[in-house]
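[job 4471] stage=fold_predict status=RUNNING
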Amino acid sequence: MLSKAVFYINIELLKLDCCLDNFVLYKRLIQMKLLLLPLLPLLLFFSCKNKTISVDFDVNSAELLHQNQDQLNQVIIYDVFTPPVASRIYAYTSLAFYEAVRFNKPENASITNQLKGFGTMPLPDTTKKYNYSLAATKAFFNVAHKVIFSIDSLKNYENNVMTTFKNMMDDDEFNRSITFGDAVSAVILIRTEKDNYKKTRGMPKFLGNRKDGRWQPTSPDYADGIEPFWGTIETLVLDSSAQCQPPTPPMFSTDTSSIFFKNAKEVYTIGNNLTDSQKIIVRYWDDNPFVVEHSGHLMFGNKKITPGGHWMGIAGVASKKHGDDLVAAAKSYSVTAIALFDAFIGCWDAKYKTDVIRPITFINKAIDNRWEPFLQTPPFPEYPSGHSAISASASTVLTALYGNDFSFHDDVDKKYIGLEKDFSSFFQAAEEAAVSRVYGGIHFSTGKTGGQLQGKMIGNLIANKFVTGTIAITPGQPK
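[job 4471] inference complete, writing C-alpha cells
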C-alpha cells in the first residue's frame, strides 16, 4: 500500500549549494513521485544558506562568462529542466551576453539581427563610457531570471559580481552600463514571449498508443512523452522545424529478415555483450536529467547535466584552450547555443512525426521479454536520436570555430559523474556521444545515423551563417 511505501528524497536535491525555492522543490519532487503529501511539512521548515561565492577572477576577462555559464548550469540541473527547454535557456542567455559585450570590439556584428524574431538591438552612446562586461552580465542575468525557476540560486553570485564591478568605477559609468544591459535584455525577452513556448505549456500530454511500431511509455516510470510540441517552437536560423529532416526511418516489421528487426537484434546483441570500455562510453554520455533510480520501494533522483549543457561546457573548454577573449568566448557560446536550440527543435519535430517505438518495447515483445537496456530509456519516441542530432550540430559549429583537429580535455561532467576524457576532435566526441545511445540500448543504429545527418545539416547552416561563410570540411558524417 502507498501508506507503507518509503520514499527517499535524494539529499542532493535538498542540500543544494544554492537553495531551491520551496514551492518549486515541492512541485518537482511530486512530479518525480519522490514525495508523499505527509512529508510536505518537513520541507516547510527545511532551510539552507546560500553558499558564499567569492569573485576571485578578472571580471573584464573571458573567465567572467565561463563563471556565469557555470552558475547557470547548476541551476538548470537543480531545476530539472528537460534537454529541449535547457537549450532554450542557453540560447537566450548567451545571446543577451554577446549582444552587449560585442561593443568591446565594435567590428563584431550583431547576431540577433541575423536571426528570426528579434527586434533591433539598442546602441550605446559613443560619446559616453560604458563597461560592456558589466552590461553583458546584467543582460545575461535579466534573461536568466525570466527563464528559470530558482532565481534566488543565482543571486548570491550575481550580487558579488555586481559589487566587484561597482567598486571598479564611478556611479555614472556603473548605472549607464546597467541601463544598457537592461535595454539589451528587454529585446531578448520580447522574443521569449512570442516563440510559442508558453503556448506549448498548455498543450495535451502525449501518452503514446498500442499501434504497431509506435512509441509507448517505457519502464520503470512509464512517463508520458516529453515536449511533444517542441517542434512548434520558433526556430532561430531554420526556416521551420521541418527544414532539415532526417531520412525516413525503416518500416516497422517483426519479420526476422527485415531491417527493423535486424536493427533491434543488433541492439539486443550489443547490450548483452557490452565491454567495460563501452559501458564507460555509455555512462559518460548519459546526460539524462530524467533518471529516477529504483531500489525496492525506494526512489531517488540523481542530478546530471543535460546533453546541451555538456556541449555548452565543451564550448567553454575549447574557448579556454584557444585563449579566447571575452567577446570571442561570447560568440562561441552563442553560436553553439543556436546550434543546440535549432537542432532540438528539428529533432523533436521529427521524433513526434515518425513516432518510432523504443528498442526496449520491441525487444520485450519480439525477442526477449526480460531484456533491459543498460541505460534507462528517456520518455519520448526513438527516431532520430537527440544526442546524435544535437552533438552533430554543435560539433559542426565548434569545428568551424576552432578547426577539424582541435583536441581537448573534456572535464565538463566530472563534478557530476566523476568522469573525464580526452578527444582529438569535436567530431570524435560527437560520434562517441551518438554511438553511446546504441550501446546503451535506447536507440537503433538508424536512429543514431538519422540524428547525425539531421544535426550535420543544421550545424552547417549555422556555421555558414555565423562562422566561416563556407565550410570546406565534411562535418558530422556518420561512420
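[job 4471] summary: Residues 6 and 296 are 9 Å apart (CA to CA).
[job 4471] exit 0
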